[in-house]
Design a protein that fits this description.
The structure is a homodimer.
Chain A lengths: L14 E2 L10 H8 L2 H10 L5 E2 L12 H14 L2 E6 L2 E6 L1 H7 L3 H12 L1
Antiparallel strand pairs in A: 1-3, 2-4, 3-4
Helix pairs in contact in A: 1-3
């Protein structure tokens, strides 16, 4: 198990999938990650700030294959948009809102304000 | 010559390449357009509000083939990020800042404020 750079020090016993440190979140990579209708939909789901399971049906994506949903979630995580907490066999995904706000002030607010009009 | 939907009524004798009307500019399409390092660089060039020629050397892109630069400029135009004015054999590209600000308030400001840190 290779430790990945994580933004916040994980709580004891907490495990997270690899993700870029806040300072390494790249704007173009984030835009590429969000420039896809499924991933934009995921962003809107995660905008509530809660942790979400990875089950496609819980994300309104039951029309997609699980591996497709997994791919999209990985793109978001590797871009620094989301963080994934591992708890036993379960994985919980949430938005890295504080990290994104720190790195790109105003961007997430502008995206979330505009997205409902087109998503 | 098929007239394309244009945002502002063109001045008499003015010709523009096809572009989406303001109301048709799609957020995900814009993000996809800007989720590329060359196109992000073009956005930064256009951020001055001026019209720019399409010559790669004028855009700091002399390392790219002209057809590659043309492709990237077309993606930006078709996404609604830029407008291209045709004057005889010359084409002049500029940012659709007012249209983007109207459609996605705060987005362009947030992008331009963040982009220099990573571009």
């Amino acid at each position: 198990m290779t430790p990945a750079p994580v933004t916040a020090a994980p709580t004891a016993g907490e495990e997270r999938l690899p993700q870029p440190a806040t300072a390494d979140i790249d704007l173009v990579t984030v835009l590429h990650a969000l420039g896809d209708p499924v991933r934009m939909r995921l962003l809107l789901s995660y905008a509530d700030g809660a942790e979400h399971s990875c089950a496609p049906r819980d994300l309104g994506l039951e029309h997609l294959h699980k591996s497709t949903v997994s791919h999209h979630m990985r793109v978001l995580r590797e871009a620094g948009v989301t963080t994934t907490r591992v708890a036993g066999r379960n994985r919980f995904v949430s938005l890295r809102r504080a990290d994104l706000d720190a790195r790109f002030p105003g961007l997430l607010d502008a995206l979330l304000a505009s997205a409902p009009a087109t998503a």
